[in-house]
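Recall from the previous lesson that a structure prediction takes nothing but the amino acid sequence as input. Here we apply that procedure to Branched-chain amino acid ABC transporter ATP-binding protein from Microlunatus phosphovorus. The sequence below is the only information supplied.
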Amino acid sequence: MTAVTTETGATDSIGGVILQAENVTMRFGGLTAVDSVNFTVHRGEIMGLIGPNGAGKTTFFNCLTGMYLPTSGQVVFDGAVLPPKPRKVVQAGMARTFQNIRLFGNMTALENVMVGRYCRTTTGPLTSILRGPKFRRDEAAVRQRAQELLDFVGLGHTTDQLARNLPYGDQRRLEVARALATDPKLILLDEPTAGMNPQETRQAEELIFRIRDLGLAVVVIEHDMRFIFSLCDRVLCLVQGRALIEGTPAQVQSDPRVIEAYIGTGPEDASALEAELQHPAESDGDSGDGDA
Ligand SMILES: Nc1ncnc2c1ncn2[C@@H]1O[C@H](COP(=O)(O)OP(=O)(O)OP(=O)(O)O)[C@@H](O)[C@H]1O
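The prediction returns the following tokens.
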């Protein structure tokens, strides 16, 4: 690992390559949603993925996480070509959250996290049916780890609460805890601050930094520019399926093509971005709305 000083002045330990997308292309019939995109993520790095609506961010995310098999190109994760099966991707050490919350609403917070943990247990069907000593040991370990993760994301007090009764920001954090329960090396967060208020957004940022400090790599899709530029080590901007620029937040912010790209697809996105880039202090407190 080498010590790297980020734009924010913090010194982070960024290690070797954990994820490499090579010329990833995804077509839907005649539409090319992702077009020959290269993308590299290192251990201990926070990568941002931005782009105007319809730029191909979610499709690219789905290619990275095995939801889609790219039409061409490949994704190499931790030294091996990614199997195009979400379950195998999780077992390989990649976890994700979704744009729309996907919790088990009628299960408790703890049970939701335990579900994520089961992919790492070795309990077979027979052991589960017989409920012998091994089953009870495994179950206790899963329960304990799930509680630790609830504590880690700041939800230690919600153990027995039904997921559907938690406030919105807590539900998003619960999703992160469930993803962490799979013991990932890389976690991908799809619009983690969507629908959050400014305070929840700051908590989300702090949580992502702590996840990175555990040594995990993080990839984030976000529409909230202030959030992404203060959080990430590097940012990739997609436009019409293509990589427009990849660089540090400072490099991406100062590239006029980025604002132009947003202007080309929607005046609201463009003016929000322009305001953020030119007058970051004035938008204080307005950055938590998200737009799922
Ligand atoms: N399953 C699909 N079938 C056909 N076209 C699709 C499919 N999924 C996405 N597309 C198209 O691919 C393009 C990229 O969509 P995608 O959702 O990946 O963009 P995005 O950058 O995530 O957008 P947003 O920020 O609005 O979520 C769009 O033109 C979209 O209509």
